[in-house]
Amino acid sequence: MNALVAAGLVDPTWDRQSYDGIAADTVVVFAVRDGNPKHIKSWADLVKPGVHVVTPNPFSSGSARWNILAAYAAQRHLGKTDAQAIAYVKQLFQHVVSQDTSGSNATNTFLSGKGDVLITYESEAINARLKGQNIQYVIPRQTIQIQLPIAVIKSSGNRDVANQFIRFVKSEPEQEVFGQYGFRPVNPVAARKFTKEFPARPGLITIDDTTIGGWRAADRKWFDPSTGLMVGIERAVGGPTSGA
Amino acid sequence: MVVALPIAALVWSSTKGGGSGFWAAVSSPEAVAALKLTLAVAALAALTNALLGTITAWVLIRDDFRGKPIVNAAIDLPFALPTIVAGLLLLTFYGPRSPVGVDAAYTRTAIWLALLFVTLPFVVRTVQPVLIELDVEMEEAARSLGARPLVVFRRIVLPNILPGILSGLTLAFARAVGEIGSLVLVSGNLPYRTEVASVFIFNQLQSGNPHGAAAVAVVLLAISFAVLLGVGGLRRRATRHDCGR
After folding, report:
1. Residue A10: how many CB atoms within 10 A of its CB?
2. Quick one: A25-148+219-235 is in which CATH superfamily?
């Protein structure tokens, strides 16, 4: 969304609308094999010997970026320092066996039999289940809240209708539909109807958490195509110096 | 027009970051690794198919067997299939749930196998017409003079079908270098290990770096063009002896 604001396509006040401009939420979860044979429950379990992880490529997938920030912030909330948490992310990527170009491609890779655990959105896992795929998932105790924003394009010729649509999307009946499809409603009335499907996680990390500092800072620190931390991590894990 | 203008636009886009931007994009270790992988596996697949395609063409032209028309038509299947479908096919056959127990998915072998699949028709279809036109009398004459079948092949058949093989090789290489649809599903796209140039370029585009992506694309184009020119030169030398008669 920041990219759209910078390009002048979206009004910078988009996040001052109701619910901070968010239409629905979801969280980062671990999708595991039937019966969870490797007993994967926490971030520490992902880096145990022999565990193969599937997550998308952060340079082509937004989903991958949420996953990485969740991994990092979870470690920080467990008391690790910045350097230790970054080292964890590097260790995590040593266990990654496939980096698909998008979150849904990663889901397909996992469903085709590759890997022991897929780091994905809760909504993606529920969606796969609704389509009849046999997928189990675990919500780690420390996880990040993924926010799905919605905003009107400034140059639109249908701004009134677009705004009406946004209000509709945030209305209680619509939010319930979101809930049925695996997304956590932002509307509190609708959200109350889904407490069983969407277990709460106290201490849920958000993008504005002090350890992350918002999307602009995160993009600069982690995902800049030449200076981001992920460039160094990918190189260290797969590159000529890795010995892999 | 249809080819030159878009390429010109691509070259222009790649220069938007200046000379230093171009060099930075192209010399980054991940870009270099992706380019090396693409060129190496494409060359290997093209050469493998030069051999397999020639054998296939030979069998289709010289032998007769039941179901030949079906096999002949099936050669063109990789042309007809959308590449994503080809990828799915390969994943099912060579992946973790393979019915023949071959789990090569998400490795460099998977890339080679995918490229073999999509480039097979090229060599077969360029060698077939040459084989059809080949005068069998030449081979029969050679054999009647006492030449062993291998010598007949090496001295009579091969020089005549070589231009066809080289044409097919060129097309196969060019196609392999640009392949993305099937590779995106079967290779796992691990940077430095199984990430090919086309996927790398796609990732750069997705992370908001279109000029860097254009720069790497231009380098890939330039190298492919050079290879095509080189093989074209070889082809001209192979056909030169025809003129001397």
Report:
1. 21
2. Periplasmic binding protein-like II (3.40.190.10)
